[in-house]
From TrEMBL:
Role this protein plays: Involved in nucleolar processing of pre-18S ribosomal RNA. Has a role in the nuclear export of 40S pre-ribosomal subunit to the cytoplasm.
Spans annotated as Disordered: 258-286
Phylogenetic lineage: Eukaryota, Sar, Stramenopiles, Oomycota, Saprolegniomycetes
Protein name: Uncharacterized protein
InterPro entries according to UniProt: Nop14
Coiled-coil region list: 187-221
rRNA processing in keyword set: yes
One Pfam family of this chain: Nop14
GO BP, one annotated term: maturation of SSU-rRNA
Amino acid sequence: CLSRATLESADHVRRALFCAGLSLQITAKKGKFMPELVHCLHEIVALVHSQDADDAWFVAPLKAFVKSKATTFPTLALDATTDGLDADAVSAAIFHSTYVLLMWLTTIRLAATQYASVASFVELFAPLHTLLSQIKAKSLKVQAEETLALLTKLTDASLKQRRPLRLQAHAPTVLPTFVPRFDENYAMRKDKTMERDKAQLKQLQRQVKRERKGASRELKRDAAFLSRQRTEEHNVWRAEKDAKQKEIRGWMEHQNATFNQQVRKGGELIKGGGSGPAKKRRISKK
């Protein structure tokens, strides 16, 4: 995230500028605003004015490049290889590179142009304008003149477009007015102040609504009554069926008990569980 990125080396600054340029290209057509991008640019510009020993990795090489009185700024490749450049050349290349995605000043100009329509443009880019205008090195100040001129122009245009805050304009609400009609037997009703035709129409609509509700209630009552009747008939049928089955089972048990009783008593008629006359024992003739 650009808002939380820590700048601890020249490679970190280069990656942050690459992400900032890439974000500007992606959001250019959509018109989206990224406040973390402006914050990241502010942190990078602040490195030029840093007096802290922790940021000497950027300030010291840049000062060394300024003291060398070089006429042209070195270039920086898109990849991470910096073998051909020393420390002061790397810092100077980051300050003003010839590659679009890694341009520091060019990235600031692109961001300012893209966010010129933001209402808080002045508050966003005023710190950047202040830091760039405070650069004392002549070679660096010359390179930042174009960016300063653009920021000044866009700031003035943004201030001219501002208008004082005011309440939203709304059309006055027209209150309905009625002509009261009083008589001796006056009673407040919904349709008292309406025209005759409208009052009759409203009355008929209310009557239809009442009739519809009444019919719905009657249908619900009939459905509940029919449901109770079906339940009662089913219960009666079930009770009769259970009684009939109980009677049949009782008769069968009674018959079975009678047969068993005859078997226990013995006799010639019933032997075992059969129902026919018992056969006589065969006597041998020998």
